[in-house]
Specification:
Layout: H1 5-30, E1 58-62, E2 65-73, E3 76-78, E4 81-85, E5 89-96, E6 101-105, E7 111-114, E8 120-125, E9 130-135, E10 148-154
Parallel strand pairs: 2-5, 4-10
Antiparallel strand pairs: 1-2, 2-3, 5-8, 6-7, 6-9, 9-10
The protein binds dinuclear copper ion.
Dinuclear copper ion binds near residues 136, 139 and 144.
């Protein structure tokens, strides 16, 4: 059978594309691209309150920066009010005691999923002092829409 030149050309082009797509999948999986974005740290979601990593919830500061430890549950965040300094790196460490929740600090780039069994962590800097709303942005049940907290960014001292 005599296949026209352009027919052959496009068959080869399609074949090369298929190989290229498969290669990106293989490279992606081999490179552990499926890991959570921050880091992998597991926790027993039924023992969060007894876990030393979540025993002291709230804000702590030292020379390296500020850390906020908080727990998400149906349908609240603990603590419910968080105070952090402006203009300094703040690291959030979060986990859930039940289902998947969200932790979004409205009007900032602070946003993460909170997955039971894992510790979610992210670091950000708040430039503008003020009050920010924290909302759950993953549907977690009947009272999902009332699940919120308050972030107060305070003018940092000298
Ligand atoms: Cu928690 Cu929606």
């Amino acid at each position: 059978m005599n296949v026209p030149f352009y027919e052959k050309l496009w068959m080869w082009a399609a074949g090369i594309l298929i190989v290229a797509f498969l290669a990106t999948i293989i490279v992606g999986v081999a490179g552990s691209a499926l890991a959570p974005p921050s880091h992998v740290e597991t926790i027993d979601p039924t023992k969060v309150w007894a876990d030393p990593r979540f025993a002291n919830r709230g804000t702590t500061s030292d020379e390296h920066g500020t850390t906020v430890v908080a727990v998400a549950m149906m349908f609240a965040f603990e603590p419910n009010e968080i105070r952090v300094p402006a203009g300094r790196p703040v690291t959030f460490r979060l986990t859930s005691t039940d289902v998947i929740h969200g932790f979004q600090i409205v009007g900032t780039n602070g946003n993460t999923m909170v997955v039971p069994g894992y510790v979610s962590q992210f670091t950000t800097v708040f430039r503008t002092p003020g009050e920010y709303l924290i909302v759950c942005n993953e549907y977690c049940g009947l009272a999902h829409h009332v699940m919120s907290a308050k972030l107060i960014v305070e003018e940092a001292g000298p």
